[in-house]
Amino acid sequence: MIEDKILHLGLTEGDGFKIFKELIQTPKDGVIIFQGMSDQTADSIKSLEGYKRAWCEESQSLSDRSLTLLRPTIRANDSEIWFSWNPRRDVDPVDKMFRSGITPTGAAVVQANWSDNPWFPDVLEQERLDCLANEPDQYDHIWEGGYVTVNKGAYFAKDLLAAQTEGRISKVAADPLMSYKAVWDIGGTGQKSDATSIWIAQFIGKEIRVVDYYEDQGQPLAVQVNWLRENGYQNALQILPHDGKTNDRVHDVSYESELQAAGFTVEVIANQGTGAAMLRVQAARRLFPQIW
């Protein structure tokens, strides 16, 4: 992109610009280099000392480690680090640094969007309108700078968009007089296991109010039990999928037996056989209009 801009402006070697495969020489002995951050080490990053500008494009992909290596290196007087990105998640390191409410001293944060572009072409305007009409669940992230809230192709993408549009995604207060149900999706233990998720819900009239949520990956059951107790859900009915009766590959005990031994009331949903997965998805879609 920088090379294209130099050529577009008609700048040549006579103006002090010389383009090579891996770098661009600029007037007054300046140089522009291009480096990926994923393969940097503490030693290799030191080679950037003395540079006064660093532009990190697609910064939503930067890791904590990359930021930790880069920030102390670009530190000459009047030096600047520029970050440009399309927000992805509020937990991405660059978002936590600049959009969490406390920004680094001297930082300037600018939200620039398609609507700020006076040269926004008609072809992109039509593309934007097509996205709004055909992929409304993706529109806010792609065009308005919103975080990814629904992964494309997710089972409940349209249902979550409807819940957001109708104001059903908000802070829901728990009713202290009503009981809790803890609905589990078991991922197992070990480094290669899937995530374990727990939804805490109350059934009040025709409404299903999801008041809390927990997720981890590869943690032993004791961690999840502690979370339930620390948050006051020790009396919640623990609803497990059919594999709740199956012994864990690492600890050789079932979630059902261990939760019962810990004093919880447990209900395991029986295996419904072939095709049951999509039947559960369809059942959840029917219930979604009642979920807050």
Automatic annotation (TrEMBL):
Q: Where is the Phage terminase large subunit N-terminal domain?
A: 21-145
- Protein name, as recorded: Phage terminase large subunit N-terminal domain-containing protein
Q: Which organism is it from?
A: marine sediment metagenome
Q: Which InterPro entries match?
A: P-loop_NTPase, Terminase_L_N, Viral_DNA_packaging_terminase
